[in-house]
Amino acid sequence: MPVLMQSFSGQTVIINGSDTRLGAATVILAVRTISKGKEAKKPDVVLENAGVLTEKFAMVEGNESSIIVIIISTFLLALMILPKLQESATKFNITPCLSITGSDIHNYTYPARES
Fold first, then answer.
1. Other C-beta atoms within 10 Å of 107: how many?
2. Are strands 59-60 and 63-64 parallel, antiparallel or unpaired?
3. Which of 23, 24, 60, 93 has a beta carbon 3.0–4.6 Å from 13's, enabling a disulfide?
C-alpha cells in the first residue's frame, strides 16, 4: 500500500469501487444505490477504483462484464466528471486530481471460445 504523501483534510474525495475512508473531510462513495452516495459540491479528488472478479463469463450491453466495469464505465465516468473538476479548479482556485487505479484482473482471462 502506498504511503499517504498529503492530507485530504478539508477536501472532497470521490471514490468509486471502495468503502474506504481516507481521513478526508468528505468522502463520496460512488455506488449503485443513490441512498448510499452523496452529491459532490466541490470535488477535489476523484479516485476511480472499480473492478469486478467473476468466475463466470457474462455479456453485458454487448461486451464481457469485466470490460464494461473496468474499462468502459471507468473511462465514461472520467469523461463525465472532467467538466466538474475543471469548474472546481476555476471557481475554487484548486488543482483537482483524477486518478484511475490499475488492476491485475486482466491476468485472469477466460479460455478462448469456439465460434
1. 6
2. antiparallel
3. 24
Contact 66, 54 (CB under 8 A): yes
User: Quick one: cell of 17?
Assistant: 469501487
Distances (CA, A) of 40 to 33, 73, 85: 15, 19, 10
Handedness of CA 21, 31, 74, 39 (dihedral sign): negative
Of the chain, the percentage scoring pLDDT greater than 70 comes to 65
33-63 pLDDT per residue, tens: 665 555 447 788 888 877 777 778 888 888 8
The total number of residues shown for the chain amounts to: 115
Picking from 48, 47, 104, 99, the residue whose alpha carbon sits closest to that of residue 73 is 48
* CB atoms near residue 80 (< 10 Å): 9
